[in-house]
Structure formats: structure tokens, C-alpha cells
Amino acid sequence: MNNAMAISWKNYASVDSFDELITAGGRARPGAGKVVQYLRSLNDDELRERRDAAELAMRVMGITFTVYNEGDSGGIDRVWPFDIIPRIIPSREWEQIDAGLQQRVRALNMFIADLYDQQRIIKDGVFPKEVLKQSVNFRKQCVGVKPVMDIWAHICGSDLVRNSDGVMYVLEDNLRVPSGVSYMLENRLVMKRVFPELFEDYSILPVDGYSTRLFDTLASLSPRPADFPTIVVLTPGIYNSAYFEHSYLAQQMGVELVTGSDLMVDADDCVYMRTISGLGRVDVIYRRVDDMFLDPEEFNPESMLGVSGLMRAWRKGNVAIANAPGAGVADDKVVYAYVPQMIRYYLDQDPILPNVPTYLCMDEKQRKHVLANLDSMVVKPANESGGYGMMVGPAVSKRVHREFAELIRKNPRNYIAQPTLSLSTVPTLCDDDVEPRHVDLRPFILSGDSSHVTRGGLTRVALKKGSLVVNSSQGGGSKDTWIVETSGKS
Amino acid sequence: MLLSSVAERVYWFARYVERVENTARMILVNNNLLLDMPRNSTLGWAPIVLITGQAKLFYEHHEEASERNVLKFLVMDSRNTSCMLSSLASARENLRTSRAIFPRAVWETLNDLYAYTKENKAAVLTRRGRYAFLQHVIDSCHLISGKLSVSMSHDQIYEFLRMGRNIERADMTSRVIDVRADNLLPKLSEDIKPFDDIQWKSVLDSLAAYQMYRRYVHVRVRGAEVLRYLLQDSCFPRAIGHCLDQFEHCLQNLPVNELPLRALGAAQRMVQEADVKKLVGGNLNNYINDLQLLFIEINSQVTSVYFEGRDELPSAVSGMRDAGNMRLAASA
Predict the structure, then answer these.
(1) Of B144, B171, B194, B207, which is closest to residue B13 (Cα–Cα)?
(2) How many other C-beta atoms can be found within 10 angstroms of the C-beta atom of residue A381?
(3) How many structural domains comprise chain B?
(4) Distances (CA, A) of A2 to A6, A43, A44, A224
(5) Which of B89, B99, B111 comes nearest A60 by C-beta?
(6) Residues A307 and A263: beta-carbon distance below 8 Å
């Protein structure tokens, strides 16, 4: 028997969605030609071999995420499914996205700073006061605080999706404790181990400068700029689903990974860590703990994850916290709807990247539209992340529509709705063939004394056929993302 | 600056990896020894259980120290927190919670070893698979030590690694001497029996010491000399004297070392001043018991000075083994 060609692109078709690698006519998109050609050249065995090698690499490297509500068998580490076919974006398109993200985060930072200061945007009638009033992420403890350079969201992870019209939209901005960047970095390492030959043919922008940039960003926040700053990563601990990432980033930056019990605030309102030779001063805390658990004195008094007096030390300017407490106020799906207005208001520019059209249920007219069109819309709670509590209209029954209609009527401020986008697809290895699977993209944006956007980001893929939910907790996997230089032709 | 919590995890990480290696080697050596012994020899696997200090637990669950029972208990029984698999899990947990400070290559090797042990543990129960399995475990442990040695800064963190390794080693050597020598000593005064030779050699083998012993001790393998070598030699890595000296070097590079050094000094004196001939004459058990109590004192000084600057319970996964009660179980 001849070598059966494992992948037959002839049968590959992404129905109703934009495919990132293959055009509707079945041709490779700019930048994707060599990958498609290469994959076609592999027979079944070779393809399987690559996939196994990737799986093995993930396991050996210990790239895992932690799953909640597992049994007590100790098996809480899962390897996050990884698909070996990369998502490819030509660098020319990426430059636009990069600029759009920087613009967006600049405006968001100005917005947060404004909210905790003069609230000009409200006084000028651009942003409604009621939205702020009902925001669960607005922290009165932060009013009047001036963080270094007045930057609040130092690390932002924005989710981008491409609709069937081929346009890349911003779906949401994660300004609290966005995660996923470590997978972006590790995915690249795995790909280099598995497909070294492809990296020879391509000019793929490297991603591994991120850790250095992150360190520089954090260092620029130090209240003692003259000294070599002591930076720590504050983790909730090993049972957090992103613990792998916390430890990974600490390792890559060469800084200490601490839990709340490693830190203390002394009588001088400075933060110290407990070391083998006594107490050592801490200058910058990259916290991966939610606001409400940061300081039991000011927030949740039951919190075992935080540090008593931390907010006091921060307000006095004795320690920098990234992201700043309260930055999550802009991480709200209602606030999201106003980002285009913010960009015009603060920067006097047109937004480079479009928002997904968003209906606010708090507005009567928009609510009516939503309630009448539940079967075609995605409804999301304003303050959830991880894909929890949302409804994808076309995918669920009338009964669920009715349930959500009820929820919306009860608490309209808490819901937004968007037309169901047809997320773009990327060819994905399923059993022994390629099939289209929906993806999104989370680039990370750093803001300090300079700003920086990752080259690409984390591509998450919904591994279930037809599914639009890419979250790791709900059957999602990931792919490497290549920003490739295309010199005219592919 | 070195976090107390990190220092503690590193220390215990090293102890657990050392423990895994020691257990694997002990099984391997006993296996070889048994193949050499006459069929109806009483030696068997019971001494190995005694050495690990887990005899009480073992006999709670098993009537008989059969090969299968002992090997399962030492390699994969989750009720035994010192078994190879549990020790690896603990080492992994300590490393996982301090990954930021270890070279990633070390994490990969340990992760690999853990997965290997989990998947292949049944091989140890078969005569054919045993050697390859255990040798792989030992080699991987060496690989970890090697990677640490060449890719990790030899700074304060590294001192905690070496301290953990050396105190675990000293402890293990004392246990091997105690149990093994105890079986042999009464026979010393009599004519050398053909199998004493192999047994004393196996004591050395259990500690991978035979070759070095031959190079440095130019007499036949004899009880008193073996004992002197394993207790007092300053060059052999598993000799108690050497381990304690290493421990001292480490402490010299650390701050606030007065109390740990004092506890260490007591053990060092006890080792150096030991009258080996007299011990061979009969007091060895008591001597080793006292020595192990000093090891425990060293451990608790290190713990209170370096690890306990914190409000909460230590977060490292740690496991002291029983000392001084090993003979209790012998009668069970």
C-alpha cells in the first residue's frame, strides 16, 4: 500500500466562518502556504509522530493547568491540550493590531486614573454615572491614589476574535489578573522542538522577549528607583488554576514567587518578605491574587491569601502593585461598550480596532432588542470571566432563553448582549484528519515607562466540533501563534 | 534574599530525592545479595524494612516480610510516606512550589522520573524487570544532582540543597550500619565464615562504597574497618563524617548559624571520638541510636532558625523518619 496522505485538504472546508489558513476557494492564505504544503507532505505515521512528540514535550516540560473540583487523588495537574497546526497572521496585519491594542490600553489607563480622581469623563457626560455606581469592581479604597506614572493596568490581556467578515474585533479586555501568557511562551518552545524544519523556512517573530519586558515594566514601577528593585510574584498558591504560570513567570524573571504568608507589612508601612536572614524589603508586587483577597484589613477579612496592611503600604507609595488594586473597574462588559468613546474622549483619535457591537441591557431600548433576539445573541454577565454564566443563543433551547430573559429583567445592569459572531477557524488535527475549529486570540499588553504588545498572543481553540467556547476549563486547547513576515507572496 | 519557605522546600526536596536513590540502591543490593546466599538463608527482605525505619507500619499491614510485600511497601505503597513513589511525589510537590528557583531542566528530569516510576513500578516485582527499573531510578536521581550542580548557582539556596542531601545521607548510612552490622557483629570473633565476607561487602555496596573502600583501606573487608570507614572517613561522600563536614561548610556560608552549628558539632564530635573497636565489641546499637537523636536535633535547629520565621505552618512537604525505635519492630 502506498503511503496514505494523512491530510487531505480537498475535503477541508470551514462553513460560514473565516478560516485563518485556507481561503474559501481552498487556497492557502498569505503566509500559510509553506505550513499547508509541509503538512501535506507528512504521511500518517509522520504526522502521528509529530503529535506524540508535542504531547510528550508538554508532559516532560510539565506544562499544566490546575483543574478545580477534582477528586483528592492528587491528580490536579492536567496537560492543556495543544494542537500542532499553528495559527498564522501576516506581520503587516499584526502591526495594525499592535497599534490598536496600545491605543486601547492607553485610553483604558486614562479612564481608570480619571475614575479614581476627578471623574471628568462622567462630568462631561461621556460615561454614565449609573454604570460606575453599580460597578462591583470599583474600589472606594483607591480613590485619590496616584500610582507611579498614573498607570493602573500594567498587564492587560485583550481577547480578539475574527468574524466571518474577516474583521478582527476586540471581545473583551482583561485588566485584573489576565493569564495565559506562559502557554504562549511554552507553545513556541514545543513547536521549535517538534517542527524545527519549519522554523528554518519561515521568518516568525520571536515571542520570548516577554519575560524581560515584563521585568522591565515592573522594575519601572519601583518606589526606590535608585536601588535594584526587589520584585515578587504574589500567587494564591498551588491550587490556583494558573499556578503553573505564576511560577513560570517568576522563574523567567528571576524573582521570588511568594504567597501571602511570605510577606508582612511592618510598622514603617513598608512590605517585607521573610527570608532565612530576616526581613527583606519588597518594592514591586506582581499580584495574581484578586483585589478582594489582597488585604484582609480592607477587603475580605477572611482572606488567607493576602497581606495585612498591604493597601496602606501601597497608598503611601512604599510599594507598587501590578495591576493596581481597583484596575478591574474597566474590566467589566458594560464598561467595555464605552471603550470606543473613551478613545475619542481621552486621545481624540478614532479607534483602530473595533468593538463587537454590544447591547447594554440597562438601556431600555437596547434591552428590548436583546429580549426580542435572544435566539441569535450571546448574553454575558458583566463581571464574570472564564466563560461562566454566559448564554450562546443559537446553541441552547427556548427554555434557557426564557431563563436568561428572566435574569436580564431582574438585573439589567449585570448583562450585555452581542450578536453571535462566527469565530474564525484554524485547521486542527482531529483523529487522523484536519477539521476547522474555532479560535480566539489573547495578546498581552504591557504598560510601564514604555509599552509593549506580545508578538501574537495565545490562540485558544475550541476542540469540540462547532463549539465556540475556548476556555481551558471548558474543553478548550491552544495553538502556537505565528506572526510571519510576508515579502509580497507567501 | 532567600525566602524561608523556599529554603525549606529546597531542603526537603533534596532529602526526598536522596531517599529515593537510597531506597532504590538498597533494594538492588539486597536483591544481588540474596542471589548469592544459600537457598534457606534467613536473611530475606526484613532487614530492608528495618533500615527504612518503617517496620512498625509495615507489620501493621503485613504478616510476613516476603519479597513481594516488602518491595510493594518500599516502592509504591501510598500508606508509606517514605516509599519511592510517595517520596518522588513529595519531592515533586516541593519543586513544583519552588520551580521559580530551580533550573527548568531539573524539573523536566524529576517530572519524567515521577511519570516513569508511576508507569513502570510493577516491574520491580518481577525478577527480570527489577534491575533495569531501579537502575533507571538511581541514574535519574544522579542526573538531577548533576543538573543542579552544573546549572544552578552555588549560592545560599544551593547550600540548603546540600544540607538536605547530606543529612539524609548521614541518616541513611547510620541506618544501614545499625541493621546490617547488627546481624553480623556476633559472628566477628569466630572464624570468618564464607558468607560474612559477602555480607560485609553488601554493607558497603548498599552505600555504593565498596570500590572506594578497596582503594583507601588496604586491608581485607573486615567489620571494624568497614565501620571506621563508613563512620569517620572524610572523603567518601556517604561516610557520616564526610556528610557532617559538608553540612558544616554549608552552614558557614549562611547567616545566623550559631545554633545549628552547635548541634552539628555535637554529632561531629560523637563520630570522630567513636572507638570503633569497642563499638564492634557490643555497644553499636545504643551508639547509633544516640547519633540519630543528634541528627534529629540538627534538623530541628535548622528548621527553627531558617524555616520558621513565619506565621503559619510550614508549607513544605516534609517527612522525618522514626529514629531509635527500629528494633522495636524486629520482635514483631
Answers:
(1) B144
(2) 17
(3) 1
(4) 12, 10, 11, 69
(5) B111
(6) yes
Name chain A contacts of B315, Cβ cutoff 8 Å. 259, 261
What chain A residue is nearest to B90 in terms of C-alpha separation? A74
The alpha-carbon gap from A238 to the nearest alpha carbon of chain B, in Å, equals: 7
**Pair type for strands A451-453 and A458-462:** unpaired
How crowded is residue A88: how many other Cβ atoms within 10 Å of its Cβ?
29
Residues composing chain A: 490
Portion 261-300 of B in contact with A at CB < 8 A: none
C-alpha cell read off for A384:
464574570
Distance CA B58, CA A245 (A): 40
Give B108's contacts in chain A (Cβ within 8 Å): 60-62
Say what the ipTM of the complex is: 0.71
Q: Domain-by-domain residue ranges, chain A?
A: 100-170+204-347, 359-419
Q: How many residue contacts between A and B have a Cβ separation below 8 Å? A: 83
Domain that holds residue B33: 4-330
Reading the block at residue A20, the C-alpha cell is 485563518
Kindly state the cell numbers that stand for B226: 568497614
| Chain B touched by A276 (CB under 8 Å) | yes
Q: Do A274 and B97 touch (CB under 8 A)?
A: no
Query: Domain A359-419 maps to which CATH number in 3.30.1490.270, 3.40.1500.10, 3.40.50.2000, 2.30.40.10?
Result: 3.30.1490.270
**Nearest Cβ partner of B100 from A60, A230, A257?**
A257
CATH code for residues A100-170+204-347: 3.40.50.11290
The set of cell numbers assigned to A307 is 497581606
Rounded to two decimals, the pTM is 0.79
| Chain B, window 49-88: residues with a beta carbon less than 8 angstroms from a chain A beta carbon | none
The answer to whether B172 faces chain A, any CB pair under 8 Å, is no
Residue ranges of A 229-248 with Cβ closer than 8 A to chain B:
230, 233, 238, 247-248
Residues of B in contact with A62 (CB under 8 A): 96, 107-108, 111
User: How is residue B199 annotated by DSSP?
Assistant: H
- A345 interface with B at CB cutoff 8 Å: no
Written as tens digits, the pLDDT of chain B (332 aa) is 889 999 999 999 999 999 999 999 989 888 887 887 776 666 789 888 988 888 899 999 999 999 999 999 999 999 999 999 999 999 998 988 777 788 888 988 998 999 999 999 999 999 889 999 999 999 999 999 999 999 999 999 999 999 999 999 999 999 888 877 766 655 544 444 555 667 778 788 888 888 888 888 877 777 788 889 999 999 999 999 999 999 999 999 999 999 999 999 999 999 999 998 888 777 888 899 999 999 999 999 999 999 986 444 444 667 766 554 433 333 33
What are the b/e assignments for B35-44, b being 16+ CB within 10 Å? eeeeeeeeeb
Task: Tell whether A80 lies on the interface with B, counting CB pairs under 8 A.
Answer: no
How is residue B281 annotated by DSSP?
I
